[in-house]
Amino acid sequence: MTVLESFEKLNEYFSANSCFTFEDNFRDVISISENEQLEKASLTCALKELEESGILKSSEIDNKKFWILFKPLDSFDQQIEISYLLAAGISSVINNVCDIVGNSSDKCDPKNLTERDLQNLLVIASKASEENLKENA
After folding, report:
1. Which of 3, 86, 111, 134 is the most buried (most CB within 10 A)?
2. Per-residue pLDDT tens over the stretch 13-52
3. The domain 3-72: what is its CATH number?
4. 17: buried, middle or exposed (CB in 10 Å: 19+, 13-18, 0-12)?
């Protein structure tokens, strides 16, 4: 398991939980383990990365290490800059789907992408991936 995969699993875990310990929560993050030592090492690297970025804080009490969210994940903002061509591509995908489903209220402006536009793109990508998986199964 890569650190990036662990990072993704921890983001999913912390979207609903505020504290992690290996003793209490390892199975919540890794339900089936093929190599527990490697997975714990990978999770530890990801936890340290989250701590260095200020998303988590850690504390050790009675020889038990706790990683605790500094604040809820949805309250962390991130600023990104993208080229106009990428914004236009994102807008085109969203607007094409809006045309197909007959929903003009969710069309987006490539000069002013919003978080809602990115959420819509995520929904579109999730649905497309889900359909591809079903077709290829």
Report:
1. 3
2. 999 999 999 999 999 999 998 899 999 999 999 999 999 9
3. 1.10.10.10
4. middle
**Cα–Cα distance for residue pair 102/137, rounded to 1 Å:** 30
Residue 20: in which H helix or E strand, if any?
A: strand 19-20
Give the tokens for residue 41.
């090492």
Q: For the chain, which residues make up each domain, given as ranges? A: 3-72, 84-136
Task: Report the C-alpha gap between 62 and 44 in whole angstroms.
Answer: 19
- What's the one-letter identity of residue 74? D
The answer to whether 109 and 87 are in contact (CB under 8 A) is no
pTM, entire model: 0.68
Place of tokens 């995520």: 122
**Which DSSP string corresponds to 27-91?**
HHH-SS-S-HHHHHHHHHHHHHHHHHTTSEEEEEETTEEEEEESS-GGG--------HHHHHHHH
